[in-house]
Design a protein that fits this description.
Chain lengths: 518, 218
């Protein structure tokens, strides 16, 4: 509680500093609902109603944030002409494509418009779809918003795009003045102008796939529009996807800023962002660990998870936070296994059928290696390789003798299902590669059919592999495994292969190389 | 995980695949050496008649069981050129006069010989003859390769126009049962090719003897 009070006091103080600064240096106030305030140095906050944007003044020109709408952009452009008559707007930085932010960018005719690489595609899609990010609906499905459908604050926002004043808003009217981005970036983009610089950072797909936050390193300010519900106390994911919230926090928290300013003008301190990120990371790590151990959400909620945060405001929302994370947690692991095994080859009847004496198959020592990607705790896909020692075969009839050494290497792509933490089943396509060397003797026939011949045959056959595995966890990263795997070969057997069915069984260890929780 | 670490792991996993997929057979085939030489009739024949020409093939059986045709490289000889004489290279002979002679072939110090009897074409009756019998469609064909079967009959020719079958009463034998067997079955004698080589089939009846030499190709 004390911590929350401190945060609140600091936030109010920060806003007070801004307000005092603004009061001291107003640039223009063409209308009561529009205002420009200085944030720090040459960084300014421009507001229309509850909508805020940001701009940075440099000796070489102005770098603009979202234009918000055509009228506001024109008003702002006029203010720039008054206050900075020799400076042109050089950049318009679009935080995302939504019409309530990106409308009116064309006012700054000579500016370079910059957005995330997903911006233009998202805008193109949006021009043919009804916006899902505002609380209005085309209830009568007549492909336009009628006046009766435009109620409340969101209705007013949409109605503000009624370009012809008929009380009806069409899709064309909504998106008509939303401009495309000429320059795009992937993860981060630094823009330097007039000795100053700022950075565009993509914080993931929270709210929109093309989101951008603007980081001003010299001013130590981060500007973020439509953020996750960071300021709710206790924190709640609400309808948000936890993964997107984590992506957003992990993109933003490492940036070196003091103040995080949101698109509605509210602010948050970096320390508060870090505190929330640390808390949520610890909760997620613990939930993932226990999820991996097979615990249910109820068991985790009843545990002492997160008790280090008892008394903090976010801890009060712990039960719901655990439930939301548990529901969407993605656990990825990469494991590598090695086992000492025995390989039993079952002799197929056709190999010996026309011979008076015949020996083949049997058990030989083998080594098994496996690389698996675990998708959660119950499913894995992997590649298994079995390297057995070579087998020997001899077969004789009056006019023909043959002795062969055959080494068969088996590989399989396996889907592994893990019903419990100590048992797994696997199934998948396999390929067996065989290399045979030996000699045969053909008597009573003219050379070259008759006589001794060296045999060297290489062949491969596809098949199916099925197996089971007992698993005993030894440490966090090490598991004792006892695999039993069968390999069945399809198609006509090569002349030198006595076997169609092989069983591989043994004991080994599995080591976890990578663990990623998302 | 760093890229270098991942690369190292993949290489370590791939190493056994590269090194451990090949079979290893420790023995090499031995160099074959000739062990025995076989002389084969080019066409089956009984006793040669004066003026008749006939040919032979020579094969060596190697130590590895393979058989080589050395007809053109072997040295061919007759033990009695007054009876049989080499008249066409490499192995064509002609019966000159009645009598006994061996046809021999030598290849790399290995020799073998085939005894032949030459008779006058105008012989004294009665004589015993062996005939190849038509057992199905087409003309009668002697067995040429292992597994083939043919049928023989034996008959006494009393004079130029009369003969009498003695197949069932005759005694049949093969000079080499590993090459050919002969067994009376019903009204005929069945000839079975067992292995490559040369054999002489003999039928005996009341002090008369008939021979029929033939070879099975390797």
């Amino acid at each position: 509680m004390m911590r929350a009070q401190v945060i609140l006091v600091i936030s109010i103080a920060t806003l007070g500093v801004f307000a005092a600064t603004v009061g001291a240096q107003p640039i223009a106030a063409a209308a009561p609902d529009r205002e420009i305030r200085q944030i720090s140095g040459d960084l300014y906050d421009a507001r229309e109603g509850q909508q805020h944007t940001i701009f940075l003044v440099t000796p070489a020109g102005i770098i603009m944030g979202d234009p918000l709408n055509v009228a506001f952009a024109q008003w702002l452009n006029d203010r720039f002409a008054e206050r900075f008559p020799n400076l042109a707007v050089r950049y318009v930085l679009l935080t995302h494509h939504h019409f309530d932010r990106a409308d009116g960018g064309g006012v700054f005719t000579n500016a370079e418009r910059v957005g995330h690489e997903a911006y233009n595609r998202a805008l193109s899609n949006a021009r043919s779809e009804w916006p899902s990010f505002v609380g209005v609906q085309d209830r009568n499905d007549n492909r336009r918003f009628d006046s009766a459908e435009l109620q409340g604050p969101d209705g007013a926002l949409v109605l503000s795009r009624d370009r012809n004043g008929d009380g009806i808003v069409t899709l064309d009217e909504l998106w008509r003045f939303v401009v495309s981005a000429r320059t795009t970036y992937h993860r981060r983009l630094t823009i330097a102008l007039g000795g100053k610089q700022l950075e565009l950072v993509h914080p993931g797909e929270w709210h929109s796939p093309d989101m951008t936050v603007l980081f001003f390193p010299n001013e130590r300010v981060l500007f973020a529009v439509d953020p996750p519900p960071l300021q709710t106390l206790p924190f709640s994911f609400g309808t948000a996807k936890p993964r997107q919230v984590y992506d957003w926090l992990h993109a933003v928290a490492p940036l070196d800023f003091d103040t995080l300013m949101f698109g509605d003008g509210t602010t948050m301190r970096h320390s508060d962002v870090n505190a929330l990120t640390g808390y949520l990371d610890e909760i997620r790590t613990e939930v993932a660990d226990r999820y991996e151990d097979g615990q249910s959400v109820e068991e985790i909620q009843a545990s002492a998870l997160g008790e280090n945060y008892v008394g903090t405001p976010h801890y009060r929302g712990r039960q719901q936070q655990i439930a939301d994370i548990y529901r969407t947690v993605q656990l990825r692991r990469v494991t590598v296994s090695g086992a000492g095994t025995g390989n039993y080859s079952r002799v197929h009847s056709s190999f010996c059928s026309s011979y008076q004496s015949c020996t083949a198959g049997g058990v030989v020592p083998a080594g098994t290696a496996d690389l698996s990607l675990w998708l959660g705790r119950r499913l894995a896909v992997g590649a298994t390789v079995v390297l057995p020692a070579q087998t020997w075969s001899t077969r004789r009839q009056p006019l023909h003798e043959e002795e062969l050494a055959l080494r068969q290497t088996r590989g399989a792509l396996l889907l592994r299902i893990v019903p419990t933490n100590v048992f797994a089943l696997s199934l998948g396509p396999s390929v067996t590669y065989g290399d045979a060397e030996g000699i045969d003797i053909v008597r009573g026939r003219l050379v070259p059919v008759g006589g001794q011949h060296r045999i060297h045959e290489r062949a491969y056959r596809f098949g199916l592999s099925f197996g089971a595995e007992a698993r005993v966890p030894l440490t966090e990263k090490l598991t004792l495994v006892a695999p039993v795997q069968t390999f069945h070969v399809f198609g006509t057997l090569p002349e030198s292969w006595p076997n169609r069915l092989d069983v591989v069984a043994g004991v080994g260890v599995s080591v976890r190389l990578v663990r990623h929780v998302n | 995980m760093s890229r270098e670490r991942l690369t190292t792991i993949v290489r370590l996993l791939a190493l056994p695949l590269v090194c451990g997929c090949n079979a290893s057979y420790p023995f090499q085939p031995s160099n074959p050496v000739p062990t025995t030489l076989q002389i084969h009739y080019q066409n089956p024949m009984g006793p040669a008649l004066v003026g008749q020409s006939f040919g032979f093939n020579a094969y060596v059986v190697n130590s590895d069981g393979g058989i080589q045709d050395v007809t053109t490289t072997a040295t061919w000889m007759s033990s009695n050129t007054n009876v049989i004489r080499l008249t066409a290279t490499p192995s064509g002979f002609t019966a000159i006069a009645p009598g006994l002679a061996d046809v021999s072939a030598t290849y790399r110090g290995i020799s073998n010989a085939l005894p032949l009897t030459v008779m006058e074409a105008d012989r004294q009756f009665p004589i015993l003859v062996i005939n190849l019998v038509n057992s199905g469609f087409g003309p009668p064909t002697p067995p040429r390769v292992v597994g083939q079967t043919a049928y023989l009959s034996a008959a006494i020719r009393i004079n130029a126009t009369q003969s009498q079958s003695v197949t069932t009463q005759a005694t049949w034998s093969s000079s080499d049962p590993r090459v050919m067997t002969v067994l009376p079955e019903g009204q005929l004698a069945t000839l079975r090719a067992i292995g490559a080589g040369t054999a002489v089939i003999t039928a005996s009846f009341n002090g008369l003897t008939a021979t029929y030499g033939l070879s099975i190709q390797p």
